[in-house]
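[INFO] parsing input record for ABC-2 type transport system ATP-binding protein
[DEBUG] input buffer:
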Amino acid sequence: MKMNYIVDISNLTKNYSNFKLDNINLRIPYGRIVGLIGENGAGKTTLISLMLNQIKKDNGSIKIFGEDNIKEENKIKQKIGFLVDECCFHSCLNAKDIRKIMRSIYTQWNDAEFNSLLKHFNVDSSKKISELSKGMKNKLMLAVAMSHSPSLLILDEVTSGLDPVVRDEILLLLKDYVQQRQITVFFSTHITSDLDKIADDLAFIHNGKLIFYEPLQKLQKDYILLKCSKDVYQRINKEDIFITFCRENEYSLLIRSDSRYPNNIDVISTPTIDDIMLLFIKGDLMHDRVN
Ligand SMILES: Nc1ncnc2c1ncn2[C@@H]1O[C@H](COP(=O)(O)OP(=O)(O)OP(=O)(O)O)[C@@H](O)[C@H]1O
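[DEBUG] output buffer:
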């Protein structure tokens, strides 16, 4: 039976000596492209590593395709394509060697698909991993992740360190691939323009806590960014303000788009993802959660 959520994370906790991934609850419906964002050290890789059962959790549960990600790891991983920050293959292997290995791991492995992705990405299949640039390695790893008909792609920093042309190429390919096959993608990034290009939803982690998981369009429709002086700020109904951030006497406020505010506001705009992140990280939260 198909479950409602492709990923269902409950009360997930992981403790390190100086960091806690704290009681994460996250449900991702089928067919979404979800961007995972957060500052350096927020817990993105920790969350992804837990989903892939690469590290041990301290509490909570992770269900993927409705099944426990530890008990059913082998079964689940047949349907997941993943790319983690470090290339997990020995550097003396080339794409041809990797193809042979993958054939024996994935029941749905498709040589033709892999070859066509390598061709599309211009990756020389006879070059060893150690001879490939970072961009080429990422493309190779992405081709591996996409060549066994996955239903879910989990990608940690797929575009990091890549030039804008290669980044764009990867994002376009991902978008086409997802549209054709209606799969789900969960990817972490620091590059917010990537999210504008392909993400349906944003999951935002800050200090090990999931601050929100929302459709990007909804966030940008429901909230506006106001920039104003202290004088104007004092005349705004505080109930209407979701986040306040003050720097050098200029107030940046995230407020609900249906709120009433004085008409002599200096700047009103739709918040970018960078604005939203900055306000959540640096600002004062006036209400509990995005709703
Ligand atoms: N094996 C470990 N032992 C101790 N602390 C760890 C370990 N792995 C990660 N951490 C800590 O957990 C925190 C979260 O790290 P994580 O890599 O998940 O962050 P991130 O959001 O992916 O950061 P970045 O964007 O910089 O990649 C950091 O403070 C990191 O130092």
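[INFO] Residues 219-285 form one domain.
[INFO] shutting down worker
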